[in-house]
Write a structure and sequence with these properties.
Radius of gyration: 34 Å
Helix content: over 70%
Number of strands: 0
Distance between the termini: 108 Å
Largest sheet: none
Number of helices: 29
Oligomer: single chain
Structural class: mainly alpha
Mean pLDDT: 77
Strand content: under 5%
């Protein structure tokens, strides 16, 4: 490339590191971040989010992986110029396109590395004007020999193929988002959309200029890796091009503002900043430039430290957004969801209600709020919310299932059955819905339909413990003990450590007077969970019927110790005591 030109950072009044040393420093800082984040301590960027699965979703990881492969693709492409602009190895170009494909599979903006590489070819080569002279002089042979046309052609063909592949992977259509994800993109008024989009762009520009969140790590690697390319234009390209897929210009995106979409653009910012500092060093006093640069670095590191505190937990992360976007329904929803996860339902209801107030068509907030109200036995309001949710979004399968559960609790069995089938209609493979449908049929004494529904649940989800257990219990209650035994043993082949199925199967075997086998399942269940009063109580009944009265007495007492109000246990224990007393009198 332009290795013969002087480094444009030569005048920056800061210590210089060679390529090897800068890589070592960057690797060392990355290792420190990894170690700290592994223990949940401070980090400068989102590496904590990658390690802590409770905080980071798959989306953030995809963006970081995309940024990694974007940079690798770009650096590999630069290898094509090491021998000068006249000759370049095609292998490096294909390797760059392959890495671009990986970046694109992680996140769609990875494809923009090819655009950046095109700009690199056009703006950076030293003999650019020679190439254009050949072009406009119709001396195409000279242009081809320079390698520019070949590079551009390979990048264009590779990019076209990757775009087609991505389009097919997406189902030949853009992704679908709801209005709450990106309200401005759903505005019918064009002027309103334009105004909101420009507001979003200004906020992203502010974030990018400040780089509060991820400046420290990117700065070193980009500053020292890209310092050989003496062009401000390319810095602007790297700043703007990776952001284009998130700009809503080509297709609707599923967010309003996200720090993660600025990872790649921050590289362009750092490049321009280094260029600007070098330029200022030639015109201002160096000690002033040095002080300003160090101040900027310290401010960004301090702000990064402050921001990373929010990533210590989901609660602090979501709550921090409230101070920025208190009128954003999705922020209120996220806070409520986190509170519900931590079993603080009263507080969760408050935030869910606020989310619905701010966005009356927010079906996910309605669904979650309806679930909490269902658990609090506020069934009428829960039914109203869930009915509104499925009316707004008729293909919302989870809301249909939850509506069916509420209607079942309200004894509206016909409506509940229809709601369950609507859920299955919109989500073919829905084992939980089949399980709840089976419960409905069991309540209606439609045993065969219940068994079929639960069998469907286990076929779709073989480890669905509740469906297996309910089949065993239903067959037990209807007197089909042999079939219940077969189902229970089939279930334990898939779930060998499930103590609830062991308990149900042990009851079945006890009724068949298979005492020894029944005892084994009871004891195995108690090994897994020794504090289940009903298991001790039923094992005591087994021993009682088996004639092992001392063991029966011991387990009756254990059961009553765990649950003094266990139904039937106290009466059975009193019967056993009378029998033991009678036996002692007989012996005496």
């Amino acid at each position: 490339m332009v290795l013969s030109e002087p480094y444009w950072d030569h005048h920056i009044p800061l210590p210089k590191l060679g390529p090897l040393h800068s890589r070592l420093v960057t690797a060392f800082v990355a290792l420190i971040c990894f170690i700290n984040s592994y223990n949940g301590d401070f980090v400068f960027d989102d590496s904590e989010a990658i390690i802590n699965n409770k905080v980071a979703g798959i989306v953030g990881r995809a963006d970081l992986l995309c940024a990694l492969f974007f940079q690798l693709s770009f650096l590999v492409y630069c290898k094509a110029f090491q021998g000068g602009d006249k000759k370049f190895p095609v292998l490096w170009i294909f390797s760059s396109i392959l890495l671009c494909a990986v970046a694109m599979l992680c996140k769609e903006q990875g494809i923009t590395v090819l655009v950046s590489e095109n700009m690199l070819s056009l703006f950076l080569p030293k003999d650019l004007w020679t190439d254009f002279y050949f072009l406009f002089s119709t001396q195409i042979g000279g242009l081809v020999s320079s390698g520019l046309l070949m590079r551009l052609a390979l990048l264009f063909l590779g990019g076209s193929f990757l775009l087609y592949a991505r389009w097919r992977i997406m189902g030949t259509g853009p992704p679908s988002f709801t209005e709450v994800d990106n309200p401005a993109s759903f505005a019918e008024n064009v002027i309103l959309r334009i105004v909101n989009y420009n507001y979003y762009y200004s906020l992203n520009a502010w974030l990018r200029m400040c780089v509060f969140f991820f400046f420290f790590n990117v700065y070193d690697s980009v500053f020292y890796t890209l310092c050989v390319y003496r062009t401000l234009t390319f810095g602007l390209v790297l700043l703007a091009i990776p952001f284009l897929p998130a700009s809503n210009l080509f297709f609707r995106v599923g967010f309003v503002i996200a720090e993660r979409v600025l990872y790649l653009s921050s590289a362009g910012y750092c490049l321009i900043l280094a260029y600007t500092v070098g330029y200022c060093s030639c015109h201002w006093k160096k000690h002033k430039v040095c002080a300003a640069t160090l101040t900027l670095l310290c401010v960004n590191v301090a702000r990064s430290a402050q921001r990373s505190q929010h990533w210590r937990s989901e609660q602090s992360l979501f709550t921090s957004a409230l101070s920025v976007c208190p009128l954003n329904a999705k922020v209120q929803y996220n806070v409520g969801k986190n509170l519900a996860y931590r079993v603080n339902q009263s507080a969760a209801v408050k935030y869910y209600r606020e989310a619905v107030r701010l966005h009356p068509k927010y079906v996910h907030a309605m669904n979650n709020l309806g679930n909490i109200l269902k658990e609090r036995n506020e069934l009428e309001e829960a039914e109203e919310l869930l009915s509104s949710a499925v009316h707004i979004q008729p293909d919302f399968a989870a809301a249909w299932m939850n509506l069916g559960i509420v209607q079942n609790s309200l004894k509206k069995f016909d409506k509940a059955e229809q709601s369950y089938w609507n859920a299955i209609k919109f989500r073919k493979k829905y084992p939980d819905c089949y399980y709840n449908l089976g419960r409905l049929y069991a309540d209606l004494n439609r045993s065969i339909d219940a068994l079929n529904a639960w069998r469907n649940a286990t076929m779709l989800k073989p480890d669905h413990s509740l469906a297996w257990n309910n089949m065993v219990i239903l067959l037990d209650n209807t007197g089909n003990l042999a079939q219940a035994e077969l189902i229970g043993k089939e279930a334990l082949k898939i779930l060998p450590k499930d103590h609830t199925i062991m308990f149900s199967l042990a009851n079945v075997l006890g009724k068949q007077e298979k005492y020894k086998e029944s005892e084994g399942f009871f004891l195995n269940a108690l090994k897994i969970n020794p504090n289940v009063a009903s298991c001790h109580g039923n094992l005591a009944v087994l021993y009682h019927r088996w004639g092992k009265l001392d063991l029966a007495k011991r387990h009756y007492e254990l059961s009553l110790r765990l649950d003094p109000n266990a139904p039937g246990t106290k009466e059975n224990y009193n019967m056993l005591k009378r029998k033991l007393e009678q036996r002692q009198r007989t012996v005496g």
